[in-house]
Model the fold of this input.
Amino acid sequence: MDPKIETKQLNFYYGKLHAVKNATLDIREHQITALIGPSGCGKSTYLRTLNRMNDIIPGARVEGEVLLDRQNIYESNVDVVELRKRVGMVFQQPNPFPKSIYENVAFGPKMLGLGRKVNLDEVVEKSLRAAALWDEVKDNLHKSGLAISGGQQQRLCIARVLAVEPEVILMDEPCSALDPVSTLKIEELMRDLTKIYTIVIVTHNMLQAARVSDWTGFFLIGELVEYGKTVDIYSRPRDKRTEDYITGRFG
Amino acid sequence: MSAKSSQKIAMAFIWGSGVITVLILFLIIGYVLARGVPALGWDFLFTAPKGGLSGEGGISTAIVSTIYIVILTIAMLIVPGIGAAIYLSEYAKDNWLTRIIRYGVDTLAGVPSIVFGLFGFVLFVTALHFSFSLLAGALTMVCLLLPTLIRTSEEAIKAVPRSHREGALALGATKWQAIWRVVLPSALPGIVTGIILCIGRIVGETACLYVTIGGSAAMPTSLLSGGRTLSLHLFYLSMETNAFEKAMATAAVLIITILIINTIINWISYRFQARMRGGA
Done:
Protein backbone atom coordinates (compact mmCIF):
# COMPACT_ATOMS: atom_id res chain seq x y z
CA MET A 1 0.00 0.00 0.00
CA ASP A 2 1.23 3.45 -0.90
CA PRO A 3 1.93 5.72 2.03
CA LYS A 4 -0.57 8.53 2.59
CA ILE A 5 2.14 11.05 3.31
CA GLU A 6 5.81 10.78 2.45
CA THR A 7 8.40 13.28 3.61
CA LYS A 8 11.72 13.25 1.81
CA GLN A 9 14.83 14.99 3.12
CA LEU A 10 12.65 17.48 4.94
CA ASN A 11 14.49 20.38 6.55
CA PHE A 12 12.91 23.20 8.47
CA TYR A 13 14.46 26.44 9.65
CA TYR A 14 13.20 29.17 11.98
CA GLY A 15 15.53 31.89 10.77
CA LYS A 16 18.94 30.36 11.54
CA LEU A 17 17.64 27.64 13.82
CA HIS A 18 17.67 24.30 12.04
CA ALA A 19 14.60 22.76 13.68
CA VAL A 20 14.03 19.64 11.56
CA LYS A 21 16.99 17.89 9.92
CA ASN A 22 16.62 15.62 6.91
CA ALA A 23 13.47 13.91 8.09
CA THR A 24 12.48 11.09 5.74
CA LEU A 25 9.51 8.96 6.70
CA ASP A 26 6.31 7.47 5.34
CA ILE A 27 2.95 7.80 7.03
CA ARG A 28 0.63 4.86 6.32
CA GLU A 29 -3.04 5.29 5.56
CA HIS A 30 -5.63 4.37 8.25
CA GLN A 31 -2.91 3.95 10.83
CA ILE A 32 -1.77 6.00 13.78
CA THR A 33 1.75 7.34 13.60
CA ALA A 34 3.17 8.71 16.83
CA LEU A 35 6.05 11.14 17.01
CA ILE A 36 7.87 11.16 20.31
CA GLY A 37 10.90 12.92 21.75
CA PRO A 38 11.89 15.47 24.38
CA SER A 39 10.71 19.10 24.27
CA GLY A 40 12.20 21.16 21.51
CA CYS A 41 13.19 18.09 19.46
CA GLY A 42 11.32 19.30 16.37
CA LYS A 43 8.43 16.84 16.45
CA SER A 44 5.73 19.53 16.61
CA THR A 45 7.50 21.56 13.97
CA TYR A 46 7.62 18.51 11.75
CA LEU A 47 3.91 17.90 12.32
CA ARG A 48 3.06 21.47 11.37
CA THR A 49 4.91 21.16 8.07
CA LEU A 50 2.38 18.50 7.04
CA ASN A 51 -0.47 21.02 6.69
CA ARG A 52 1.77 24.04 6.20
CA MET A 53 0.72 25.66 9.48
CA ASN A 54 4.30 26.89 9.75
CA ASP A 55 3.68 29.13 6.76
CA ILE A 56 2.25 31.78 9.05
CA ILE A 57 5.46 32.04 11.08
CA PRO A 58 7.69 34.88 9.84
CA GLY A 59 11.20 33.79 8.89
CA ALA A 60 10.31 30.11 8.52
CA ARG A 61 11.76 28.12 5.63
CA VAL A 62 11.21 24.59 4.33
CA GLU A 63 13.44 22.41 2.17
CA GLY A 64 12.69 18.95 0.83
CA GLU A 65 9.42 17.34 -0.11
CA VAL A 66 6.17 16.48 1.60
CA LEU A 67 4.06 14.26 -0.64
CA LEU A 68 0.36 13.84 0.11
CA ASP A 69 -0.97 11.10 -2.16
CA ARG A 70 2.20 11.54 -4.22
CA GLN A 71 1.67 15.28 -4.68
CA ASN A 72 4.20 17.70 -3.21
CA ILE A 73 2.26 20.08 -1.00
CA TYR A 74 5.01 22.70 -1.15
CA GLU A 75 4.70 23.17 -4.90
CA SER A 76 3.65 26.65 -5.88
CA ASN A 77 0.37 25.56 -7.49
CA VAL A 78 -0.91 23.91 -4.29
CA ASP A 79 -3.83 25.69 -2.64
CA VAL A 80 -2.99 25.84 1.08
CA VAL A 81 -6.64 26.29 1.99
CA GLU A 82 -7.57 23.13 0.07
CA LEU A 83 -4.66 21.30 1.69
CA ARG A 84 -5.78 22.20 5.20
CA LYS A 85 -9.25 20.88 4.45
CA ARG A 86 -7.68 17.52 3.62
CA VAL A 87 -5.21 17.61 6.50
CA GLY A 88 -6.96 18.79 9.65
CA MET A 89 -5.33 19.63 12.94
CA VAL A 90 -6.07 19.35 16.67
CA PHE A 91 -3.95 21.53 18.93
CA GLN A 92 -2.32 21.11 22.31
CA GLN A 93 -4.63 23.52 24.11
CA PRO A 94 -8.29 22.90 23.29
CA ASN A 95 -9.23 25.95 21.24
CA PRO A 96 -12.99 26.06 20.71
CA PHE A 97 -14.18 29.36 19.31
CA PRO A 98 -16.19 31.54 21.70
CA LYS A 99 -19.39 30.36 20.02
CA SER A 100 -21.96 27.68 20.82
CA ILE A 101 -21.10 23.99 20.57
CA TYR A 102 -23.31 23.77 17.49
CA GLU A 103 -21.66 26.76 15.84
CA ASN A 104 -18.21 25.38 16.56
CA VAL A 105 -18.93 22.16 14.68
CA ALA A 106 -20.89 23.89 11.91
CA PHE A 107 -18.09 26.41 11.45
CA GLY A 108 -16.11 24.48 8.84
CA PRO A 109 -19.04 23.39 6.63
CA LYS A 110 -20.54 26.89 6.79
CA MET A 111 -17.24 28.51 5.93
CA LEU A 112 -16.73 26.19 2.99
CA GLY A 113 -20.14 27.24 1.72
CA LEU A 114 -21.70 23.81 2.28
CA GLY A 115 -24.42 25.29 4.48
CA ARG A 116 -27.04 25.01 1.76
CA LYS A 117 -25.93 21.74 0.24
CA VAL A 118 -25.82 19.65 3.38
CA ASN A 119 -28.10 19.38 6.35
CA LEU A 120 -26.05 21.16 9.01
CA ASP A 121 -27.97 19.58 11.87
CA GLU A 122 -27.05 16.16 10.54
CA VAL A 123 -23.40 17.07 10.02
CA VAL A 124 -23.19 18.44 13.56
CA GLU A 125 -24.79 15.35 15.07
CA LYS A 126 -22.68 12.96 12.99
CA SER A 127 -19.44 14.76 13.85
CA LEU A 128 -20.24 14.97 17.54
CA ARG A 129 -21.15 11.27 17.59
CA ALA A 130 -17.91 10.40 15.79
CA ALA A 131 -16.01 12.42 18.39
CA ALA A 132 -17.84 10.54 21.19
CA LEU A 133 -19.28 13.76 22.55
CA TRP A 134 -22.89 13.67 21.32
CA ASP A 135 -24.44 12.00 24.37
CA GLU A 136 -22.84 14.49 26.72
CA VAL A 137 -23.87 17.65 24.88
CA LYS A 138 -26.96 16.80 22.82
CA ASP A 139 -29.25 18.71 25.19
CA ASN A 140 -26.95 21.72 25.37
CA LEU A 141 -25.93 22.33 21.78
CA HIS A 142 -26.38 26.05 22.18
CA LYS A 143 -24.21 26.33 25.25
CA SER A 144 -20.85 28.07 24.74
CA GLY A 145 -18.05 25.79 23.56
CA LEU A 146 -15.94 27.31 26.33
CA ALA A 147 -18.35 26.33 29.07
CA ILE A 148 -17.65 22.56 28.92
CA SER A 149 -14.75 20.66 30.51
CA GLY A 150 -11.28 20.60 28.97
CA GLY A 151 -11.66 17.00 27.79
CA GLN A 152 -15.02 17.79 26.22
CA GLN A 153 -13.54 20.90 24.60
CA GLN A 154 -10.82 18.80 23.00
CA ARG A 155 -13.37 16.33 21.66
CA LEU A 156 -15.38 19.30 20.41
CA CYS A 157 -12.28 20.43 18.52
CA ILE A 158 -11.96 16.94 17.06
CA ALA A 159 -15.64 17.05 16.03
CA ARG A 160 -15.01 20.43 14.44
CA VAL A 161 -12.23 18.92 12.35
CA LEU A 162 -14.31 15.85 11.43
CA ALA A 163 -17.11 18.09 10.15
CA VAL A 164 -14.97 19.18 7.20
CA GLU A 165 -14.23 15.51 6.40
CA PRO A 166 -10.45 15.59 6.18
CA GLU A 167 -8.34 12.61 5.13
CA VAL A 168 -5.57 13.08 7.66
CA ILE A 169 -5.82 14.42 11.21
CA LEU A 170 -2.73 15.88 12.85
CA MET A 171 -2.78 15.96 16.64
CA ASP A 172 -0.27 18.12 18.45
CA GLU A 173 -0.07 16.77 22.01
CA PRO A 174 -3.87 16.64 22.20
CA CYS A 175 -3.98 15.25 25.73
CA SER A 176 -1.25 17.20 27.47
CA ALA A 177 -3.77 19.61 28.98
CA LEU A 178 -6.22 16.88 29.99
CA ASP A 179 -6.86 14.62 32.97
CA PRO A 180 -6.29 10.83 32.69
CA VAL A 181 -9.96 9.97 32.16
CA SER A 182 -10.35 12.43 29.32
CA THR A 183 -7.04 11.24 27.89
CA LEU A 184 -8.30 7.68 27.82
CA LYS A 185 -11.49 8.76 26.05
CA ILE A 186 -9.50 10.52 23.35
CA GLU A 187 -7.23 7.51 22.91
CA GLU A 188 -10.22 5.19 22.43
CA LEU A 189 -11.67 7.69 20.02
CA MET A 190 -8.46 7.73 17.97
CA ARG A 191 -8.62 3.97 17.47
CA ASP A 192 -12.17 4.32 16.14
CA LEU A 193 -11.23 7.14 13.84
CA THR A 194 -8.55 5.17 12.00
CA LYS A 195 -11.30 3.30 10.16
CA ILE A 196 -11.82 6.44 8.12
CA TYR A 197 -8.86 8.69 8.82
CA THR A 198 -5.10 8.65 8.95
CA ILE A 199 -3.77 10.07 12.21
CA VAL A 200 -0.41 11.55 13.11
CA ILE A 201 0.01 12.37 16.79
CA VAL A 202 2.79 14.20 18.54
CA THR A 203 3.01 13.20 22.16
CA HIS A 204 5.17 13.76 25.18
CA ASN A 205 3.80 10.67 26.74
CA MET A 206 5.68 7.53 25.70
CA LEU A 207 3.06 5.25 27.20
CA GLN A 208 0.43 6.98 25.13
CA ALA A 209 2.46 6.41 21.97
CA ALA A 210 2.86 2.76 22.93
CA ARG A 211 -0.87 2.38 23.66
CA VAL A 212 -2.36 3.99 20.59
CA SER A 213 0.09 4.03 17.72
CA ASP A 214 0.98 1.58 14.96
CA TRP A 215 4.14 3.42 13.97
CA THR A 216 6.51 5.49 16.05
CA GLY A 217 9.14 8.02 15.14
CA PHE A 218 11.67 9.25 17.69
CA PHE A 219 13.01 12.78 17.25
CA LEU A 220 16.05 14.23 19.01
CA ILE A 221 17.42 17.73 18.45
CA GLY A 222 15.72 18.02 15.07
CA GLU A 223 16.84 14.63 13.86
CA LEU A 224 14.60 11.64 13.22
CA VAL A 225 16.64 9.07 15.11
CA GLU A 226 14.53 6.02 14.53
CA TYR A 227 11.28 5.16 12.85
CA GLY A 228 9.44 1.87 12.69
CA LYS A 229 6.56 -0.24 13.93
CA THR A 230 5.65 0.74 17.46
CA VAL A 231 6.10 -2.81 18.77
CA ASP A 232 9.61 -2.94 17.35
CA ILE A 233 10.62 0.47 18.61
CA TYR A 234 9.49 -0.36 22.12
CA SER A 235 10.76 -3.94 22.26
CA ARG A 236 13.94 -3.81 20.18
CA PRO A 237 15.11 -0.24 19.58
CA ARG A 238 18.03 -0.23 17.16
CA ASP A 239 19.53 3.05 18.29
CA LYS A 240 21.10 3.51 21.72
CA ARG A 241 19.53 6.99 22.04
CA THR A 242 16.03 5.60 21.42
CA GLU A 243 16.59 2.94 24.02
CA ASP A 244 17.81 5.52 26.54
CA TYR A 245 14.79 7.68 25.90
CA ILE A 246 12.10 5.03 26.09
CA THR A 247 13.62 3.48 29.17
CA GLY A 248 13.44 6.91 30.81
CA ARG A 249 17.14 7.66 31.04
CA PHE A 250 16.54 11.23 29.80
CA GLY A 251 13.80 13.45 28.39
CA MET B 1 12.10 56.66 61.14
CA SER B 2 10.93 53.13 61.78
CA ALA B 3 9.52 50.99 59.01
CA LYS B 4 6.15 50.95 60.77
CA SER B 5 5.76 54.68 61.06
CA SER B 6 6.88 55.25 57.45
CA GLN B 7 4.26 52.74 56.40
CA LYS B 8 1.65 54.65 58.41
CA ILE B 9 2.64 57.95 56.83
CA ALA B 10 2.53 56.43 53.34
CA MET B 11 -0.88 54.94 54.00
CA ALA B 12 -2.19 58.25 55.34
CA PHE B 13 -0.86 60.00 52.25
CA ILE B 14 -2.48 57.50 49.87
CA TRP B 15 -5.77 57.60 51.73
CA GLY B 16 -5.69 61.38 51.80
CA SER B 17 -5.11 61.55 48.05
CA GLY B 18 -7.95 59.14 47.42
CA VAL B 19 -10.36 61.04 49.65
CA ILE B 20 -9.46 64.39 48.07
CA THR B 21 -9.93 63.03 44.55
CA VAL B 22 -13.31 61.52 45.33
CA LEU B 23 -14.39 64.65 47.20
CA ILE B 24 -13.53 66.94 44.27
CA LEU B 25 -15.32 64.61 41.88
CA PHE B 26 -18.47 64.52 43.98
CA LEU B 27 -18.32 68.25 44.58
CA ILE B 28 -18.30 68.99 40.86
CA ILE B 29 -20.93 66.44 39.90
CA GLY B 30 -23.04 67.21 42.97
CA TYR B 31 -22.88 70.94 42.42
CA VAL B 32 -23.80 70.71 38.74
CA LEU B 33 -26.62 68.29 39.38
CA ALA B 34 -27.95 70.27 42.37
CA ARG B 35 -27.98 73.53 40.40
CA GLY B 36 -28.94 72.02 37.07
CA VAL B 37 -31.55 69.36 37.75
CA PRO B 38 -34.22 71.74 39.21
CA ALA B 39 -34.17 73.70 35.93
CA LEU B 40 -34.62 70.50 33.92
CA GLY B 41 -38.02 69.59 32.56
CA TRP B 42 -39.78 68.57 29.40
CA ASP B 43 -40.08 72.22 28.50
CA PHE B 44 -36.36 72.74 28.71
CA LEU B 45 -35.57 69.59 26.71
CA PHE B 46 -38.09 70.20 23.97
CA THR B 47 -37.94 73.93 23.20
CA ALA B 48 -35.38 75.48 20.93
CA PRO B 49 -32.82 77.91 22.35
CA LYS B 50 -33.33 81.53 21.34
CA GLY B 51 -29.64 81.92 20.55
CA GLY B 52 -27.71 85.16 20.56
CA LEU B 53 -27.12 86.87 23.88
CA SER B 54 -30.50 86.11 25.42
CA GLY B 55 -29.85 82.64 26.80
CA GLU B 56 -33.59 82.05 26.70
CA GLY B 57 -35.28 78.84 25.59
CA GLY B 58 -34.38 75.17 25.97
CA ILE B 59 -31.91 72.80 24.34
CA SER B 60 -33.95 70.86 21.77
CA THR B 61 -31.87 71.87 18.73
CA ALA B 62 -28.65 71.23 20.66
CA ILE B 63 -29.82 67.71 21.46
CA VAL B 64 -30.68 67.12 17.80
CA SER B 65 -27.33 68.56 16.63
CA THR B 66 -25.50 66.35 19.10
CA ILE B 67 -27.33 63.24 17.88
CA TYR B 68 -26.67 64.16 14.24
CA ILE B 69 -22.97 64.77 14.85
CA VAL B 70 -22.66 61.49 16.76
CA ILE B 71 -24.39 59.46 14.03
CA LEU B 72 -22.53 61.16 11.17
CA THR B 73 -19.14 60.88 12.79
CA ILE B 74 -19.53 57.25 13.83
CA ALA B 75 -20.90 56.31 10.39
CA MET B 76 -17.83 57.75 8.68
CA LEU B 77 -15.42 56.58 11.39
CA ILE B 78 -16.20 52.88 11.67
CA VAL B 79 -15.00 51.55 8.32
CA PRO B 80 -11.62 53.32 8.09
CA GLY B 81 -10.98 52.97 11.84
CA ILE B 82 -11.64 49.25 12.10
CA GLY B 83 -10.12 48.63 8.66
CA ALA B 84 -6.86 50.28 9.70
CA ALA B 85 -6.90 48.34 12.96
CA ILE B 86 -7.29 45.05 11.08
CA TYR B 87 -4.50 46.03 8.72
CA LEU B 88 -2.13 47.01 11.52
CA SER B 89 -2.80 43.98 13.69
CA GLU B 90 -3.19 41.24 11.09
CA TYR B 91 -1.52 42.22 7.84
CA ALA B 92 1.14 44.88 8.43
CA LYS B 93 4.68 43.56 8.56
CA ASP B 94 6.86 44.99 11.26
CA ASN B 95 9.04 47.35 9.24
CA TRP B 96 9.99 51.03 9.22
CA LEU B 97 6.83 52.02 7.34
CA THR B 98 4.39 50.44 9.77
CA ARG B 99 6.46 51.72 12.68
CA ILE B 100 6.04 55.23 11.29
CA ILE B 101 2.29 54.65 10.88
CA ARG B 102 1.98 53.44 14.47
CA TYR B 103 4.07 56.30 15.75
CA GLY B 104 1.91 58.71 13.74
CA VAL B 105 -1.30 57.23 15.12
CA ASP B 106 -0.01 57.50 18.68
CA THR B 107 1.13 61.07 18.14
CA LEU B 108 -2.17 62.09 16.59
CA ALA B 109 -4.03 60.63 19.56
CA GLY B 110 -2.20 63.12 21.77
CA VAL B 111 -2.61 66.24 19.64
CA PRO B 112 -4.96 68.83 21.24
CA SER B 113 -8.39 68.82 19.64
CA ILE B 114 -8.26 72.50 18.69
CA VAL B 115 -5.41 71.65 16.30
CA PHE B 116 -7.72 69.19 14.55
CA GLY B 117 -10.38 71.89 14.63
CA LEU B 118 -8.07 74.32 12.89
CA PHE B 119 -7.21 71.68 10.30
CA GLY B 120 -10.91 70.96 9.76
CA PHE B 121 -11.63 74.65 9.45
CA VAL B 122 -8.97 75.10 6.77
CA LEU B 123 -9.77 71.93 4.83
CA PHE B 124 -13.50 71.28 5.20
CA VAL B 125 -14.98 74.67 6.05
CA THR B 126 -12.98 76.83 3.63
CA ALA B 127 -11.06 74.79 1.02
CA LEU B 128 -13.90 72.32 0.35
CA HIS B 129 -16.61 75.00 0.85
CA PHE B 130 -18.66 72.98 3.31
CA SER B 131 -18.83 76.22 5.38
CA PHE B 132 -19.81 75.87 9.06
CA SER B 133 -21.82 72.69 8.89
CA LEU B 134 -22.59 69.36 10.48
CA LEU B 135 -20.64 67.73 7.64
CA ALA B 136 -17.50 69.78 8.28
CA GLY B 137 -17.83 69.16 12.02
CA ALA B 138 -18.34 65.43 11.67
CA LEU B 139 -15.43 65.04 9.22
CA THR B 140 -13.19 66.91 11.64
CA MET B 141 -14.35 64.67 14.48
CA VAL B 142 -13.53 61.65 12.32
CA CYS B 143 -9.94 62.92 11.99
CA LEU B 144 -9.78 63.57 15.72
CA LEU B 145 -11.12 60.16 16.71
CA LEU B 146 -9.52 57.88 14.11
CA PRO B 147 -6.37 57.34 16.20
CA THR B 148 -8.44 56.47 19.27
CA LEU B 149 -10.64 53.99 17.44
CA ILE B 150 -7.69 52.44 15.60
CA ARG B 151 -5.75 51.85 18.82
CA THR B 152 -8.68 50.52 20.87
CA SER B 153 -9.78 48.22 18.03
CA GLU B 154 -6.23 47.04 17.47
CA GLU B 155 -5.92 46.16 21.15
CA ALA B 156 -9.23 44.29 21.02
CA ILE B 157 -8.14 42.34 17.94
CA LYS B 158 -4.76 41.51 19.43
CA ALA B 159 -6.45 40.22 22.58
CA VAL B 160 -8.08 37.40 20.57
CA PRO B 161 -5.92 34.34 21.30
CA ARG B 162 -3.67 33.14 18.48
CA SER B 163 -5.11 29.67 18.95
CA HIS B 164 -8.47 30.87 17.59
CA ARG B 165 -6.82 32.05 14.37
CA GLU B 166 -4.86 28.80 14.06
CA GLY B 167 -7.98 26.76 14.72
CA ALA B 168 -9.79 28.49 11.88
CA LEU B 169 -6.83 28.29 9.49
CA ALA B 170 -6.39 24.59 10.24
CA LEU B 171 -9.99 24.02 9.16
CA GLY B 172 -9.21 25.42 5.72
CA ALA B 173 -10.21 29.02 6.36
CA THR B 174 -8.50 31.71 4.34
CA LYS B 175 -6.82 34.43 6.35
CA TRP B 176 -9.75 36.75 5.69
CA GLN B 177 -12.31 34.11 6.70
CA ALA B 178 -10.42 33.57 9.93
CA ILE B 179 -10.47 37.30 10.60
CA TRP B 180 -14.08 37.84 9.56
CA ARG B 181 -15.63 34.77 11.16
CA VAL B 182 -13.52 34.21 14.24
CA VAL B 183 -11.30 37.14 15.14
CA LEU B 184 -13.73 40.02 14.59
CA PRO B 185 -16.71 38.42 16.38
CA SER B 186 -14.45 37.71 19.35
CA ALA B 187 -13.05 41.23 19.29
CA LEU B 188 -16.42 42.88 18.70
CA PRO B 189 -17.22 43.82 22.31
CA GLY B 190 -13.80 45.47 22.61
CA ILE B 191 -14.36 47.33 19.37
CA VAL B 192 -17.84 48.39 20.46
CA THR B 193 -16.34 49.71 23.69
CA GLY B 194 -13.95 51.77 21.57
CA ILE B 195 -16.86 53.14 19.53
CA ILE B 196 -18.82 54.09 22.63
CA LEU B 197 -15.70 55.75 24.01
CA CYS B 198 -15.63 57.79 20.79
CA ILE B 199 -19.29 58.71 21.25
CA GLY B 200 -18.39 60.02 24.69
CA ARG B 201 -15.59 62.08 23.17
CA ILE B 202 -17.96 63.52 20.55
CA VAL B 203 -20.54 64.47 23.15
CA GLY B 204 -17.88 66.14 25.26
CA GLU B 205 -15.92 67.84 22.48
CA THR B 206 -16.13 71.64 22.25
CA ALA B 207 -13.03 73.26 20.74
CA CYS B 208 -12.95 71.15 17.62
CA LEU B 209 -16.62 71.80 16.83
CA TYR B 210 -16.49 75.48 17.80
CA VAL B 211 -14.46 76.21 14.67
CA THR B 212 -16.25 73.80 12.32
CA ILE B 213 -20.01 73.65 12.90
CA GLY B 214 -20.44 77.30 13.78
CA GLY B 215 -23.00 77.50 16.56
CA SER B 216 -26.34 78.13 14.94
CA ALA B 217 -29.17 77.68 17.41
CA ALA B 218 -31.57 76.79 14.61
CA MET B 219 -32.73 73.27 13.94
CA PRO B 220 -30.31 71.65 11.44
CA THR B 221 -32.08 70.62 8.23
CA SER B 222 -29.29 69.19 6.07
CA LEU B 223 -25.69 68.03 6.15
CA LEU B 224 -24.63 71.55 5.28
CA SER B 225 -26.62 73.21 8.07
CA GLY B 226 -24.68 74.65 10.95
CA GLY B 227 -25.55 73.65 14.48
CA ARG B 228 -24.44 73.52 18.07
CA THR B 229 -23.96 70.44 20.17
CA LEU B 230 -24.78 70.38 23.86
CA SER B 231 -21.20 71.09 24.87
CA LEU B 232 -21.02 73.94 22.44
CA HIS B 233 -24.34 75.30 23.68
CA LEU B 234 -23.01 75.15 27.21
CA PHE B 235 -19.96 77.07 26.08
CA TYR B 236 -22.07 79.80 24.47
CA LEU B 237 -24.40 80.02 27.45
CA SER B 238 -21.60 80.44 29.91
CA MET B 239 -19.44 82.77 27.82
CA GLU B 240 -21.99 85.01 26.17
CA THR B 241 -25.10 85.08 28.35
CA ASN B 242 -26.11 85.37 31.98
CA ALA B 243 -28.31 82.31 31.83
CA PHE B 244 -26.36 80.51 34.52
CA GLU B 245 -29.15 78.16 35.57
CA LYS B 246 -29.67 77.08 31.96
CA ALA B 247 -25.94 76.44 31.57
CA MET B 248 -26.06 74.27 34.69
CA ALA B 249 -29.10 72.40 33.43
CA THR B 250 -27.30 71.73 30.13
CA ALA B 251 -24.24 70.56 32.04
CA ALA B 252 -26.47 68.22 34.06
CA VAL B 253 -27.82 66.71 30.84
CA LEU B 254 -24.25 66.22 29.62
CA ILE B 255 -23.12 64.58 32.84
CA ILE B 256 -26.09 62.25 32.87
CA THR B 257 -25.42 61.32 29.22
CA ILE B 258 -21.77 60.55 29.96
CA LEU B 259 -22.76 58.49 33.01
CA ILE B 260 -25.10 56.43 30.86
CA ILE B 261 -22.39 55.93 28.21
CA ASN B 262 -19.85 54.81 30.81
CA THR B 263 -22.33 52.39 32.34
CA ILE B 264 -22.88 50.85 28.92
CA ILE B 265 -19.10 50.51 28.42
CA ASN B 266 -18.72 48.76 31.76
CA TRP B 267 -21.57 46.42 31.02
CA ILE B 268 -20.15 45.48 27.63
CA SER B 269 -16.64 44.81 28.92
CA TYR B 270 -18.12 42.68 31.68
CA ARG B 271 -20.06 40.66 29.11
CA PHE B 272 -16.93 40.41 26.97
CA GLN B 273 -14.88 38.90 29.78
CA ALA B 274 -17.68 36.53 30.70
CA ARG B 275 -17.89 35.38 27.11
CA MET B 276 -14.15 34.81 26.84
CA ARG B 277 -14.35 32.64 29.95
CA GLY B 278 -17.34 30.73 28.60
CA GLY B 279 -19.98 32.21 30.87
CA ALA B 280 -22.33 33.56 28.21
